Amino acid sequence: MRAEELRLRRTIFTAFAETGEPPPVGSLDARVLAELERRHVVVLRDSRIWMAHPFAAHRWGTRVEAPDGRVWWGNCAWDGLGIVAALDLRSAVVTSGDVVVHMRDGAVVDDALFHVAVPARHWWDDVEHT
Amino acid sequence: MRLLRSEDSVEGGALIGMQQLWDVAQVWYGDRLDPEWRPRTRDESQRLLADAGLVGEFWELP
Q: Quick check: B7 pLDDT over 80?
């Protein structure tokens, strides 16, 4: 991955981490952004950054809330827990559909099951639905 | 991929528990905000899945 791609990637991930939102694509280099999409670093939709795993711009996946009220979204619970890990949150509430999982002192408190419907070799066929 | 209550049932695919999901989420995504982050190879990703106990044809990456 080239230096300009790593720089743009970092801009995108920093924005997601700090605000829960991606930066507007109009402010980004379209050519480099297209390369990040080709490399599966980002998913683009409707002229915006839709996902940069574990973060998502859409609001129908998994919600992660920190104790101070900050909120992020991921596409699924795997991504939600990934947000907890990437941000090094010690505690969080992770909500996916009607299932709520609490993280406390760096550990999962609640019991639940995670269903993966699609084999790993096909995850990127439709990465929103796996 | 979706989260279920432990008593829910579902057909097909794979089911993993929360501790295992937390284990794999940490190694899969824990470095995403590191300044020195670099993309993994396919084999490195496969090894992370295996280290979390996710092995077999279902978990074979392309």
A: no
How far is B39 from B34, CA to CA, in rounded Å? 12
Q: Which of B15, B16, B29 sits opposite A54 (nearest CB)?
A: B29
Angle at A80 between CA B29 and CA A10, to 5 degrees: 45
Angstrom CA distances, A51 to A28, A40, A47, B47, stand at 15, 10, 12, 24
Q: What is the pLDDT of residues A35-61, one digit of tens each?
A: 999 999 999 998 899 999 999 999 999
Q: What is the pTM of this model?
A: 0.94
Flag if B3 and A101 touch (Cβ within 8 Å).
yes
Contact call for A115 and B14, based on CB within 8 A? yes
Q: Which residues of A touch B (CB under 8 A)?
A: 1, 6, 9-10, 13-14, 17, 39, 41, 53-54, 62, 75-79, 81-87, 96-97, 99, 101, 107-108, 110-122, 124, 130
